[in-house]
Design a protein that fits this description.
alpha/beta; TIM Barrel; 8-stranded parallel barrel; binds 1,3-dihydroxyacetonephosphate
């Protein structure tokens, strides 16, 4: 299955002035990691994060990007701007962006395509709300999210995408999906990819779980065959907690 990746999503937390030291702390706490370790930070913190990660095994990611190359898009940040700083990953379509910033499956698709065109690794987020889960439409919804996000993307490029399955009801709530629930959806996502492309492509894609993942529950989730890592919110803001999750990814 895909390469293991443990990524922190800092969301709107931490100041630029504390970022370099914190990333160094994460690097020191995760020496010998047997997976890829990523810190995704706010735009303002990225230069300091890259500085802190220099010469270490830690990679840096952004939390969003714009799908145009450049131009009159006040307040937006392009793929080239991220690459120029030394950023490697970019989170796309997080549920908070879909919910609060009107991101749609269409803009998510444009962003994934732009990231791939430019050589950034997209971390594509999908996931259902509690209402959708209770209505029994989780897999229908996620199938649509995956199909739309991958529209017009070749198998070769699709294999480079990281997918984060993040049930919205588990984000920041302390209510983690059970390992069985997470595995069921991650396995189904791989099945959708196999249908869109082929088995080898589906197997190559890294599929993460995200949603209240922490030092206590990471090992059980990561032991599942279709879960290749985690996208971590709250627990990525403390280096010791984050390091324990990295340690669990063996
Ligand atoms: P929490 O780990 O804080 O639940 O956040 C998950 C998340 O949204 C990561 O992108």
């Amino acid at each position: 299955m895909g390469k293991y990746i443990i990524a922190g999503n800092w969301k709107m937390n931490k100041l630029p002035s504390e970022t370099c030291a914190f990333v160094k702390e994460v690097a020191a706490a995760t020496v010998g990691a047997q997976c890829e370790v990523v810190c995704c930070t706010p735009f303002t913190n990225l230069a300091e994060a890259v500085k802190g990660a220099q010469g270490t095994h830690v990679s840096i990611g952004a939390e969003n990007l714009h799908f145009e190359d450049k131009g009159a898009y006040t307040g937006e940040v392009s793929a080239d701007m991220l690459l120029d700083l030394g950023v490697k990953y970019v989170i796309i379509g997080h549920s908070e962006r879909r919910q609060y910033f009107a991101e749609t499956d269409e803009t998510v698709n444009l962003k994934v395509k732009k990231a791939l065109e430019k050589g950034l690794i997209p971390i594509l987020c999908v996931g259902e709300s509690l209402e959708q889960r209770e209505a029994g439409i989780t897999m229908d919804l996620i199938t649509i999210q995956i199909k739309k996000a991958f529209a017009g993307i070749s198998a070769e490029n699709a294999a480079k995408v990281v997918i984060a399955y993040e049930p919205i009801w588990a984000i920041g709530t302390g209510k983690t999906a059970t390992a069985e629930q997470a595995e069921e959806v991650c396995g189904a996502i791989r099945g959708v990819l196999a249908g869109l492309y082929d088995e080898p492509t589906a197997k190559t894609v890294t599929i993460q779980y995200g949603g209240s993942m922490n030092a206590g529950n990471a090992a059980e989730l990561l032991a599942k065959p279709n879960i290749d890592g985690g996208l971590i919110g709250g627990a990525s803001l403390k280096s010791a907690d984050f390091a324990k999750i990295v340690e669990a990814a063996k």
